[in-house]
Amino acid sequence: MKYYLLLLSFVFIFSCDTQTNASSSSEHDEPSSDSTHLETDSDTHPEHENEVKIVEELPDLAIINSDVIQEKIGESFLPIKYNFLKINAIEKWDNISSKDIEGSTEGGIATYYTREGQILKIKTEQLGEMGKSISHYYLNDGQLSYAFSETHEYNRPIYYDSTAMVENNDTEYFNPEASIIGISEYFFEKNQLIRIIENMDCGAPFSQDYRDGEEEWLLGQMEILMKKDEE
Questions:
Q1: 176 in helix, strand or coil?
Q2: Does the predicted model carry a pTM greater than 0.85?
Q3: How far apart are CA 153 and CA 176, in angstroms?
Q4: What are phi and psi of 167, to 5 degrees?
């Protein structure tokens, strides 16, 4: 989903015209255990004892965590998932830094995870009156390999409390637990978007124009985020 929907009204549009053959979130399997041995910090970097330690995994809804992903993408998915698992296996980072970012009415922040001089992961969070967007970007050799976006469409604006509900003769007030959550996953190979998977689809494939637009936008976002880190 395009993150500029967070601007002002933060309206989210989920259209069947731009849908894929991906399964819905109810079809996602439980995260699988990968048989490939991943080198951890204790295996290869015992000297990094005083670094920032953090373990952060994507929600179980992320299809990259499940077994069905290989059926949907094929062999080209394997290096993407291996890179994803390898990065998530890192428990200690050399540096974790944050920058304020623009693009939403209530502010946003980008967090950079660095290991041995390389940014391996970027997490962004953008807030609006009617929702929020959380995105994770995984890099491989400086290029985008995988991106995960989680958008929350609120049932009412964040300032809409029980008093406003009564005054407006309404039946609901702001309740984050009533949000509609959209999940989008993007798989890249050599800076080319090879697959989009979403949980709010109606079964129709994405048009090529839509795929091209998403690829251009995501690579543009990466360029903006990398430049922001240099400021």
A1: helix
A2: no
A3: 9
A4: -60, -30
* Integer Cα distance of 28 and 54 in angstroms: 26
Who's near 105: CB < 8 A, 6+ residues apart?
6, 7, 8, 10, 127, 128, 129
For 71-119, how does the pLDDT look when each residue is reduced to its tens digit (9 = 90+)?
656 677 888 888 988 998 999 999 999 999 987 788 899 999 999 999 9
Q: Where are the beta strands (DSSP E) in the chain?
A: 52-53, 92-93, 95-101, 108-115, 118-128, 131-140, 143-153, 180-189, 192-198
User: What Å distances lie between residue 128 and 86, 138, 199, CA to CA?
Assistant: 33, 24, 22
pLDDT tens-place string over residues 8-30:
333 333 334 433 333 333 333 33
Which candidate, 206, 221, 170, places its Cα nearest to that of 3? Answer: 221
Question: Domain residue spans in the chain?
Answer: 3-12+57-90+105-230
Count CB atoms within 10 A of the CB of residue 28.
23
